[in-house]
Amino acid sequence: MLTKPRLARAADDAALVRVIEHGISGTEMPGAHSMSERDIRQTAAYVRTLGRVAIKPVPGNAARGAELYRTKGGCAGCHDAGFTAPALQGVGSRRSAVYLREALLTPESAVPDGYLLVTAVPRSGGNVTGVRVNEDSFSIQVRDASGKVHSYWKSELAELRKQRGVSPMPSYRGTFSEDELTDVVAYLASLKDSE
Amino acid sequence: MRLLLFLTPVLLAQVNVPYERILNADAEPGSWLTYSRNYSGQRYSPLDQIHTGNVSKLRVAWMNQANETETVQASPIVADGVMFITKPPNIVEALDAKTGRVLWTYRREIGNDFRGCCGRVNRGVAILGDTVYYGSIDAHLVALNANTGAVRWDVVMADPKVGFSGTGAPLVVKDKVIAGIAGGEFGVRGFIDAYDAKTGKRAWRFYTIPDKGEPGAETWAGESYKTGAATTWVTGVYDPETDTLLWGTGNPGPDWNGDGRKGDNLYSSSLVALDPSTGKLKWHFQYTPHDVNDWDSTQTPILADGVVGGQKRKLVVLANRNGFYYSIDRVSGKFVAGRPFVKQTWASGLDESGRPMRLPNTTPTEAGVLLYPSLGGGSNWYASTFSPQTGLYYVNAKEEGAYYIKGAAEFKAGSFFNGGGQRPNKAEQPWGAVRALDVVTGEMKWEYRLHVPSHAGLMTTAGGLVFGSNGTSFFALDASKGDLLWRFEAGGGIVANPITYKVDGKQYVAISARHVLLVFGVE
After folding, report:
1. Which of A21, B84, B95, B175 has a 20 to 30 Å separation from A97 between CA atoms?
2. Are A4 and A46 in the same domain?
């Protein structure tokens, strides 16, 4: 769902057609290579109509949500450092309130690309759990919660556990009351891209 | 499994380089924390695991490719196991220094208004704390989170539409990021900037051409100072002992037609000594007064100490593009000694103050006048090096003459403002050499001849080595005698400076060839 009428990457219709056709490199959005030129033009026109729908205000108290984000939720520790969790600047421009609520309740439903949780156990002892930064057949780089990157040759590892479908983020079901959840969603929805 | 570990993170990032680490770079020889490794500009590494006895066993450990065929010219930074490089067209990348695997990539769009004289080149980043600083080809200064690549701030240095671009690596001094600017072929007015490292707010700007009424303004005829160039496109050095920033300046504009800018044209083709806190000029030394040969003096100068007349002197030395080697007292800015380090035919020598005595009939003409060196110079932006171990200064020297041509020069913002050019001298084949010079006098001790001139930098190490390049070859010489000890065919032109570093106890040497970064280690 589009949450704003002005598109940062598509100032005009020609740019919007290009975005739909080629996707946005470096993001999750793929190019629509199977669509015909006509399909793409029609999709672009549809996207423009979405921007004309009045934006429904998100309920809740954003200021109180911001406070919960920093205190009870402990969200800032990971998201503001940006090491093991994505930075949330502008998340309100990209994600709907419904999505944000779901992500808070069932984080595993919303693990973004590039945040696979892994545990590396070197033969020399100890182990490191963190987010996979990069991996190939021979080596893996893991960023722990402190931001430190650990680089291992796979031949040095006794074990490498990949926790697909697991999010390092805890569910806030039961942690936040229904009102608190609404406030945190209101806060996140208020984080718009600067224009 | 839920990770409680993630709920109480310790904010101890992977990469963190406070100023004190850069200031004391020699205490951690395994790192390469600033453009020339430390502030001296010597590009000498105390690492000695790779040495004259085992350099023949050097093999490729890993490579990193750019997706563009343009040449990678970056001198990497290595800190805390992470290497930071820049790539064409406008990319900063963090690599795991051990495996070469990518940790993050920052890509920046280039607007249609980008000009640039000489390709989308970049010579690297600077680091302070957990922030990496990048002077982009579209003349922004960008601060990136060193651990994630996220943008912390992004400020406009100058307008790319009129020809400004960022190509040099910034230099961090204390809490400031010092950055030069390119665009000397577009009639811009050059400057050196300092920005607050935390906020990106500009702390000072030193214009390399004085404004009307300021000292030095009288060295520019009429309004010519407004389009006098004197850009600052290669990283300077910092002398902590005297708290002085030393930075080279480029050619005056228009390059080959000086008719409209009569006078010495301060501070073009000079070395300027600035207070890094305020940007105030302490002294200057002009290598080529009223330059009409495009002999930028932007090469990184080198701080070295030498014995002159039985006394130890603090020197700043440089083998200049104009063909002369200079040693200057870095406290007073006074000339100490100098002599040609390549064939030169434009001056009868240097006078007592170090000013070249230009010979008659050596200014460019419409028909062309044959002079040595060519406009590429006796050397150029690529690094020279000084080894405290041998006491020698090493330069990549170019032996080439050319016909200098004077043409019309009409200023139009954003267009080339050159006033001529050069025509090759087909009667002779240009060649090059790595030359070892006495650091005080510039007297040559040995040379290693190169079939064609090289456009790449040099590095010395405590392993008794000089690393250099020629065309597509990367090689190591014995620093004391100049014997070739090892070479590698890289298959792509090398136009970059080498570096060396250590990670997990192993020493590596890195150089870029065309669009590939190559990293070598001993098996």
Report:
1. A21
2. yes
